[in-house]
Amino acid sequence: MTVVGEPPPFRIAFDNARDPYTARNALGVTSSGVTAATPPLLITGGTISLDTAAAIAAIAPAWTAYTPTISALTGTLAAFSASGKYLTIGKQTSIQIEILITTNGTAGVFLLASLPNTATGLAILAGRETAIVGKALTGTVGNMSNTTVLIINYDNTYPGGDGHSLVLSGVYENT
Predict the structure, then answer these.
(1) Three-state DSSP class for 105?
(2) For a Cys-Cys bond, which of 44, 78, 116, 135 suits 86, CB 3.0-4.6 Å?
C-alpha cells in the first residue's frame, strides 16, 4: 500500500539502487537492449545514434512559393516574369524575389513587388541585377506601403531594362 505523499515502491527501489542493473530491474525493464527506434533515431549493432539531417529536416519549416505582383511607378512592363518564396517564423519573414524582364516597355523610375504578408515598419532588402549590368539593388519595405517592396538601383536609377534579371532577398518584420 502506498501512503499519500510517498513515492510508489518501484520509485523507492529505483532511487536506492546503486548501479544501472538494479535500477533497471526496479523499473521492470527486463530487455537486454533496445531493438527498435523511431527516426531520426537509428540503431546499428545495438548502438543508438541520431540522424542529424533527418532531425533538422523534421523541425525546419519549409519555404513557401508565391508569385509577386510587379508594377512600375511610371509606365508598364511589356514582358516579364516574377517568382518568389518566403519563410515566416513568428513575426519575421525571410523573402527571396526574382524578376526576369524580357521587354521593359515604358516602365520607369522604380519597380514595386508585392510582399507575401503585411510588413511592420521599415526594412531593407539587398539584391543584384545578374544578367546585363550587374548593379546592386536596394529593396525598401514599408516605404510606399506595408504590402510592397520598392526596388531601385544602388545609385537611385531605374533597375529595369530589356533582358534584366533582378534578384533580391532579405528579412522584414510582419504583423
Answers:
(1) coil
(2) 116
Q: In a 3-state reduction of DSSP, which class is residue 38?
A: coil
45 DSSP 8-state letter: T
Task: Look at residue 140 in the predicted model and tell me its pLDDT.
Answer: 97
- Sorted by where each starts, the structural domains of the chain and their CATH numbers stand as 9-59 (no CATH), 64-173 (2.60.90)
| Spatial distance between the Cα atoms of 107 and 75, rounded to a whole number of angstroms | 4
Q: Which of 72, 76, 74, 99 is nearest to 169 (CA)?
A: 99
Give pLDDT tens digits for 38-83. 777 777 777 778 888 877 777 778 999 999 999 999 999 999 999 9
**Interval 146-159 mean pLDDT:** 97
What does each C-alpha distance from 103 to 71, 112, 157 come to in angstroms? 14, 17, 18
